[in-house]
């Protein structure tokens, strides 16, 4: 018999690693070896990453423990004083180079330069900005990486107090107003943090408004150029974010010019023996007999907000003053939503005794304006140019000395009929001018006389209040005038009636009762004493500034504008 061959025993399918009969049980399979090798590599990689994490954590912990600058930054406290001289950015000079100073300012911008360096722009009032440098790599500088990182995280418009070494930059810093110096920060403390998101950013606040509060007056923005794609904010957004609106350099420049006009008005008059007084804002009857007044409860009666200090200026003259002036709020309950109207505005008023002719007053008022315009042009050129960079405008043209532009109302209407747009071909001499007529006449006068400033005299009786003195040679017109800037009225004035019987007759001719409350007290002043001939004018401060700078709205001039649609903030 043939010998019996041994049968092949298959591998255990439940345990592939079990060797089949005839295989070396001690030798692993190729497949198993590969799996074991992969698993070992995976475990090794896992261990390596864990070690790296531990090393990084240890490094971070060590770095944190080694933050030698931890007392040089963070929130301000009484335990972190900066005991060096405080210097304002506008006063930085060569004498400060190499010295350590203290500055308190807003963070206007911040940018990182790697992990060890950052640049910050610091800003003080009046758009005074300077570049600050903070570096953790500079030898001997008490700055750490953590300090640099913390500074990079400060929110724009936060207020900080810094200690810094004044140095000269390698080249002038073009992005800041203080270009010849830079501050190397050694300490920085957060005094007041800004929010994560600003309602109005500084860049947008320093651009022209995108639209006015009333869509019907959008034409006032024509001519303004804004770079395509540049975000702009509406006037409402500006005024609803008053702090950021006021931080904008253009807003501060406008505010500075506004106060300059008021100060120059007072300065000119004081030098000519005018005396200042304060008229009331609360009165017991509607002034000037008008209906556009704000009424309010006043204990057991009704009171009103004054529309004008006119009566009180005249009482001052009756009281023995020869020349008086005042700066005061004026209230008008007129539902006018235009770029030239507000319900509250600042008035600049004067009244003076007349010796021979009411043009004495007119000429003095011309002197006031020419003085103001001259001073603005010579002493506020930087502010004017800054404003023009945002709201472009042509230079405000003034007449040559001795060649002031004065037209009668009738002459102005005649010029409109002869050379103005066709829609004004039939304007009459006995009706007041519309805004469109005023602007068209202003364009004609600029072209004909090369001046943006002029006077319209001899207004018709129906266009003037009851106290205006009629022209003794032509009772259809008055000894009253308007002063105009760029074709828009900024002053109304003239000679006043000073004899009680003439005043009463004119009041009745206007359909009013001289014995009604408010008017009776006014007329009684002229009945009680002899009052000399006098005249004056009332100026709208915000209009003067707006039209001089050719701004789209008087609301950009007022500190806190009030309109039919705005009573806040």
From TrEMBL:
Region described as Disordered: 1-67
Catalytic activity: tRNA(Asp) + L-aspartate + ATP = L-aspartyl-tRNA(Asp) + AMP + diphosphate
Domain of life of the organism encoding this protein: Eukaryota
Ranges of Basic and acidic residues composition bias in the record: 1-10, 34-55
GO terms assigned for molecular function: aspartate-tRNA ligase activity; ATP binding; RNA binding
GO cellular component: aminoacyl-tRNA synthetase multienzyme complex; cytosol
Any one GO biological process: aspartyl-tRNA aminoacylation
Main location: cytoplasm
Stretches with biased composition (Low complexity): 56-66
EC number: 6.1.1.12
Residue ranges annotated for the Aminoacyl-transfer RNA synthetases class-II family profile domain, each copy included: 257-569
Key words of the record: Aminoacyl-tRNA synthetase, ATP-binding, Cytoplasm, Ligase, Nucleotide-binding, Protein biosynthesis
This protein's record includes keyword Aminoacyl-tRNA synthetase: yes
Subcellular location: Cytoplasm
Span of the signal peptide: none
Keyword Nucleotide-binding: yes
Similarity comment text for this entry: Belongs to the class-II aminoacyl-tRNA synthetase family. Type 2 subfamily.
NCBIfam families, per the entry: aspS_nondisc (TIGR00458)
Protein name: Aspartate--tRNA ligase, cytoplasmic
């Amino acid at each position: 018999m043939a010998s019996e061959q041994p049968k092949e025993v298959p591998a255990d399918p439940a345990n592939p690693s079990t060797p089949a009969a005839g295989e070396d049980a001690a030798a692993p399979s190729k497949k198993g070896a590969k799996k074991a090798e992969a698993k070992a590599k995976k475990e090794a990689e896992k261990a390596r990453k864990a070690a790296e994490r531990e090393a990084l954590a240890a490094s971070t912990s060590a770095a944190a423990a080694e933050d030698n600058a931890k007392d040089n930054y963070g929130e301000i406290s009484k335990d972190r004083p900066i005991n060096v001289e405080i210097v304002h950015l506008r006063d930085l000079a060569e004498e400060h180079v190499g010295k350590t100073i203290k500055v308190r300012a807003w963070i206007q911008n911040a940018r990182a330069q790697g992990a060890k360096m950052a640049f910050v722009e610091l800003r003080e009032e009046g758009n005074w900005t300077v570049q600050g440098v903070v570096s953790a790599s500079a030898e001997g500088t008490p700055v750490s990486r953590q300090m640099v990182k913390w500074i990079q995280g400060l929110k724009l418009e936060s207020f900080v107090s810094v200690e810094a070494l004044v140095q000269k930059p390698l080249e002038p810093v073009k992005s800041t107003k203080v270009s010849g110096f830079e501050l190397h920060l050694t300490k920085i403390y957060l005094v007041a943090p800004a929010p994560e998101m600003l309602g109005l950013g500084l860049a947008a606040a320093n651009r022209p408004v995108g639209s006015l509060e009333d869509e019907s007056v959008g034409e006032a923005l024509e001519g303004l150029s804004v770079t395509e794609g540049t975000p702009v904010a509406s006037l409402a957004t500006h005024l609803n974010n008053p702090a950021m609106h006021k931080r904008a350099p253009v807003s501060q420049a406008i505010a500075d010019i506004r106060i300059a006009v008021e100060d120059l008005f007072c300065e000119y008059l004081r030098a000519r023996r005018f005396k200042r007084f304060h008229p009331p804002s609360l009165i017991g009857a509607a002034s000037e007999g008008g209906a556009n007044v704000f009424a309010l409860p006043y204990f057991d009666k009704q009171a009103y907000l004054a529309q004008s200090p006119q009566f009180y200026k005249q009482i001052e003259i009756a009281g023995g003053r020869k020349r008086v002036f005042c700066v005061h709020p004026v209230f008008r309950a007129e539902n006018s939503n235009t770029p030239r109207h507000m319900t509250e505005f600042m008035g600049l008023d004067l009244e003076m005794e007349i010796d021979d002719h009411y043009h004495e007053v007119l000429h003095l008022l011309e002197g006031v304006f020419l003085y103001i315009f001259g001073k603005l042009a010579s002493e506020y050129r930087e502010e004017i140019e800054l404003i023009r960079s945002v709201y472009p405008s042509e230079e405000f043209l003034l007449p040559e000395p001795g060649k002031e532009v004065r037209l009668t109302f009738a002459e102005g209407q005649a010029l409109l009929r002869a050379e103005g747009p066709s829609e004004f071909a039939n304007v009459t001499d006995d009706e007041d001018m519309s805004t469109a007529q005023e602007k068209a006449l202003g364009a004609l006068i600029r072209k004909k006389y090369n001046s943006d400033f002029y006077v319209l005299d001899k207004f018709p009786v129906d266009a003037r209040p009851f106290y205006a003195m009629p022209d003794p040679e032509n009772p259809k017109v008055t000894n009253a005038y308007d002063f105009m800037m760029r074709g828009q009225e900024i002053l109304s004035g003239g000679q006043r009636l000073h004899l009680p019987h003439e005043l009463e007759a004119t009041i009745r001719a206007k359909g009013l009762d001289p014995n009604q409350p408010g008017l009776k007290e006014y007329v009684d002043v002229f009945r009680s004493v002899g009052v000399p001939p006098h005249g004056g004018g009332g100026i709208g401060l915000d209009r003067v500034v707006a039209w001089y700078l050719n701004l789209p709205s008087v609301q950009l001039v007022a500190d806190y504008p009030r309109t039919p649609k705005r009573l806040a903030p």
